[in-house]
Amino acid sequence: MKFFADTADTAEIRELAATGLLDGVTTNPSLIHKSGRKFVEVVKEICAITPGPVSAEVVAMDHETMMREANVLRAIADNVCIKVPLTVDGLKTCKALTSEGTLVNVTLCFSANQALLAAKAGASFISPFVGRWDDIGTDGMSLIADIRQIYDNYDFGTEILVASVRHPIHVLEAAKIGADVMTAPPAVINKLFDHPLTAKGLESFAADWAKTGQTIG
Ligand code: E4P
């Protein structure tokens, strides 16, 4: 499973890239607002940090304006992936962009039928938001399982990008279902390293090693 960082914070992205775990980045208008930086400038910087897909979202509601915005964004770097909403105009834009070889991430997906539409529109990625589904008392992961089954039934090439990931259980469940990608805030990805027995074992090995009085090299 590929790991994307769901952030527009370039310091966090650099740290994650240094671990070798970073396969791409997703941003959205709220994350750009949080960064306090100019959209085009921050996307350019992120694209220089990672060679993987960097999602940059259009904000228009109509196809023509979405295309104009996409043209500005895809000119930033070859690894820009245009993020469009799951609407009629968003999917028209998806079809037009992917036909021209541009990567497209269809966002704000909340049903398996929506995911089916995105695949038929040639989306490179579909982003079902599991955390926001959980927030309204439904099981977000059941959506991922349904989309996996549908995409496998018809051999769609669209990658399932699990979004709105809030904690390690979301990552585990997404991996068990066979999602292609998950995007999470770096804080969630960093939690995956943690296990109390790893920390305890390391502590006792370090203590015993100190008693040997040896050094390596
Ligand atoms: C995905 O691309 C979105 O940016 C993101 O995962 C949304 O997450 P949230 O529901 O925590 O805002």
TrEMBL record:
E.C. code: 2.2.1.2
Protein name from the UniProt record: Probable transaldolase
Signal peptide coordinates: none
Keywords: Cytoplasm, Pentose shunt, Schiff base, Transferase
Protein family according to the UniProt entry: Belongs to the transaldolase family. Type 3B subfamily.
Catalytic reactions on record: D-sedoheptulose 7-phosphate + D-glyceraldehyde 3-phosphate = D-erythrose 4-phosphate + beta-D-fructose 6-phosphate
Subcellular location, record wording: Cytoplasm
Organism: Sphingomonas quercus
InterPro entries: TAL/FSA, Transaldolase_3B, Transaldolase_3B/F6P_aldolase, Transaldolase_AS, TSA/FSA_arc/bac
Pathway membership, UniProt: Carbohydrate degradation; pentose phosphate pathway; D-glyceraldehyde 3-phosphate and beta-D-fructose 6-phosphate from D-ribose 5-phosphate and D-xylulose 5-phosphate (non-oxidative stage): step 2/3
Function per UniProt: Transaldolase is important for the balance of metabolites in the pentose-phosphate pathway.
